[in-house]
Specification:
6 copies of one chain form a homohexamer.
Chain A (H helix, E strand, L loop, with lengths): L2 E7 L12 H19 L7 E7 L4 E3 L2 E2 H12 L1
Parallel strand pairs in A: 1-2
Antiparallel strand pairs in A: 3-4
């Protein structure tokens, strides 16, 4: 009876996209449910998955909002 | 000092509704707070309730997005 | 397909008890599942409930660990 | 590797504002990440922060939706 | 920067085991992190995974504690 | 009415300690409650804090259990 919660930033995975697509969400749901079946023998229909999309400004890493942190990291690598 | 989190899909409970209504939310808040008072003697004003409404495509069950899972179940029952 | 999470402090509801009992947990599970059936017409077997018991020192209220906060409140009422 | 989740109601902190501002969110992210560095020596870049803004009608306290609870409290203090 | 939370009951996946093993946990962590890389191109080192093991009596399904629900289901299938 | 959840690995912050101490927890509770008062003007007694301590083997980063990930990082820095 697993419950899986996946939190990601609300952004596209490729240029021209501004959010996770329905197809990508379906792949996440399928993949993680299958993983629980493979590893722990949990039947597919006993697994719930909830995906939360979080606005970029609501996500922090490195003491900074996510976009500022990414910019800082990119600058460090130069 | 309980904290209750209720996650439901964002959909109406009757035809013509597309979301949980404010009245239904108030009933959930009242009911679960009363339950914690009745069972564990928690004072009403020490209970927090947060309701999350989750888009249908962000909810997975049976390895599928919720709508596809419901369609599959309905087909199986025929 | 609701998911309910109930967080309570790990303590007894009556003198001589140091934790929530299995009977109390069963009442919480039954009560909140029934509430979701009554208010939102969610079938019982589509509701998952998870109860988290949190150590007293891991719970904060009023800027203080829970026990210190309760002592402060009790002192204020005198 | 801490994960911090901060849930607040979606409302402004001053008249004329209807939501938490990006500046306030940045201050929350910075402050809580610094706190984990100060208290537990967690490096800034190992801390994730997620802020959830919750609609007023989805938040319950005292067995009531948040606005009704605040109105009740304000009336009691008169 | 995904955060994945996996909640499962504290029980073994095979006779003679009473809990999820460290190896099984490592497989869950590896599998779901890889899934986020494959589907959303999230670098492995930006994904956090937290596994919660929940006592059987703290998990509810079908309005019943998990063990009672399983027994009921098994009886129905006969 | 904020709710703050802080998840950290169950380990000591200094040699000879195997867990977060009660004093450190009290500092986290005090600090984050004060932060919400300073930034969003939330009264101290409307903020709940819950600290979750997670076993090292239940925490994943970089596709690995936390300890393996740390060892890998340390080796890379050499």
């Amino acid at each position: 009876m697993p419950i899986v919660n996946i939190k990601v930033t609300r952004e596209g995975s490729a240029p021209g996209r501004s959010a996770v697509t329905a197809e990508e969400k379906a792949l996440l749901i399928k993949g993680v449910s299958q993983l629980l079946l493979d590893v722990l023998h949990k039947p597919l229909d006993s697994t719930f998955v909830v995906i939360d999309e979080v606005e970029m400004e609501n996500w922090g890493w490195g003491g900074l909002p996510a976009e500022a942190f990414r910019a800082q990291r990119a600058a460090e690598k130069k």
